[in-house]
């Protein structure tokens, strides 16, 4: 294009428009500095047992308190961390912070604190030979019960190298942690792998859940995913539940757990504690997460 307009086109280029590669390099430097300098935060989104509307745990989601740009979401820096290899430090930090927080909440033991914690792992972390050691180190450091930790791996990351993934998952599973396939339905996992991986939970991607009520196709996909999960003996979790209609549809379909703005956005730890305290008491609060009666009403009173 520049050629067609003549050789000097670059001279009219807006000088304030910095080369994206330069921007990335700068952001990368800032991120490295930010990780070391304690600028990362973890927010927690409740995971609800649909049948009882009781919190069963939380998912840890990283944020970056950038000194000038404010609180940044993962979309603005996770890919960069992944491509540069910084995800190793970032991931280790998030895991450690989440396990520490989980251990603190479980020591409170007052029923007002979430205890089980889910942490996301990237494709690159999955390929890191130190991963299992790192997970074990955090569990040991805070004395956290491994069965209360779930590691989430996207379907896409698993399918990048299924043979390697299966080995790593088996090693992680031996630590006693739970394993979830994240963003399920977006990555072409074959059913064979689903059966062979030591998975405890299937998280149905938000893109399908958001179509409940508007798309018959999405409705069929969500329902099939739930049945598939139950057929292989694992939990089904719906991501991105935003409306009460979606919640009640998922309940009818027999989905076990749900996360989404309908219940709560991801919250800073102290705000999550406030949110839990403000939840109405449930008659069924003694019921643990897991497949409940398919038609139980999640009534609070
Ligand atoms: P994810 O693991 O699938 O997490 C769910 C994302 O959906 C979160 O976005 C969450 O805030 C958002 N979400 C939850 N409920 C709703 C809803 O009802 N509606 C809508 N529109 N969105 C909802 P977030 O926090 O921006 O994270 C995006 C992705 O970044 C995550 O997707 C995960 O893949 C990645 N990520 C986040 N934290 C970490 C981390 O510590 N390590 C790694 N490797 N990846 C992370
Ligand atoms: Mg996740
Ligand atoms: Mg997801
Ligand atoms: Mg996602």
TrEMBL record:
Indicate what this protein is called per its UniProt record.
Answer: EAL domain-containing protein
Q: Where is this region: Disordered?
A: 282-301
Domain EAL: start-end pairs: 24-280
Q: What is the lineage of its organism?
A: Bacteria, Bacillati, Actinomycetota, Actinomycetes, Micrococcales
Q: Which organism is it from?
A: Arthrobacter echini
Could you say which residues of the full protein are shown?
Answer: 298 to 598 of 605
